[in-house]
Amino acid sequence: MRTTLLLAKIFALFALIAGCGGGGSTSGTGPSGPPHTTVSGVVSKGPIQGEVKLYTPGANGDTATKIFLTSASTDSTGYYTADLGSYKGIVIVEATGSYTDEATGATLAIGTSAPLRAVAVIANAGNTVQASVTPLTELATRKALAAGSGSVLTETAIASANALLSNLFPFDILATRPVAPTVIAMSGATQQQRDYTIALAALSKLSAASSLSTVLNSFAADLTLNGRLSAATVANFETAAGAFLADGTHNRTGVTTISAGIAAVGYYTGTLYLATTGTASAPVTSIQMTLKLPAGVTLKTGNNGEALVSLYGVAGQAAAPGINYIAPDTLILAIISSPGFAVGEFAAVTYVAEPGVIPVASSFTVPYSRVTGFDGTSDFELPLSVVPLLH
């Protein structure tokens, strides 16, 4: 009897300990358990059914000696998820499999000799990272590798390449998940997802006259040459997008007109910085200036139609500037500050360059500027110049 009672108490104690653990974690991470890094996304050229393999580069970022981490299969929508345990650092995702080509309806394959790739950086063990794998992430991978002599990946190059492609296309190429090119899938998607899906279909339309490899090589050559897509490449892409949307036989998306996002593919959004130069005997208390933009460049505007200009650097605490944007090429800017600010960079201006237009700092001019200081008794003009800068 005493033995039975003792066993009952032990079982009750075990039950109490188990209950204190709560409901558990689907990721396998608990208060005392190891972190679980998860990488997931959609593999698409339309949706690819197949396999993804995840790697880390070898020593010094060398992809020629990449190290296998794990693999996963995609479902019917192209979705995959992979658990990398406590891994952090650079991850290379390679995808292979078959898909239905949006432009022709043919069943095609991405083979092991030329997988589609995506590269990302996992900052901390336990992070959840979104990494779709598409022809656009393949272009970003090539761009990142080109910065490292063709075989070496660095975190800086990866971030720069992914940001560049996400600038030239109207969505985050890694975090956005394209959907199946069907009415049902598109109706439940965000605008970014719809744009991604149509962009991939446009690439399929371009590839129908040659091959996906040829199209990607052409895009990659543009990106390697000048970090942009040429006007000719963008024009061909827009023509292909329009042709796909007009194709009543193969276009099953329910979309028939080009969106504002697809129409903006290839346009590059950048930041121009304005700075005062020279020597001042007093703090800057006001700036009045005119900025002229080069051909093919306009200013990005907010919902109110006002140019996106923010005070920056030495003028970061000054009052909001007076802004008058006379489209397409003139910005009139006025800043008043008390007690004033030092000489240096004082404003950041967001601009948009057309495909094939790559402005340099000297492309922007300041035909008029007046910089005023206050010496404690009176305002007077300072012998300072305002110059445009591109970092």
UniProtKB/TrEMBL annotation:
Q: Which UniProt keywords apply?
A: Signal
- Signal peptide extent: 1-20
The entry's protein name is: Carboxypeptidase regulatory-like domain-containing protein
| Organism per entry | Geomonas terrae
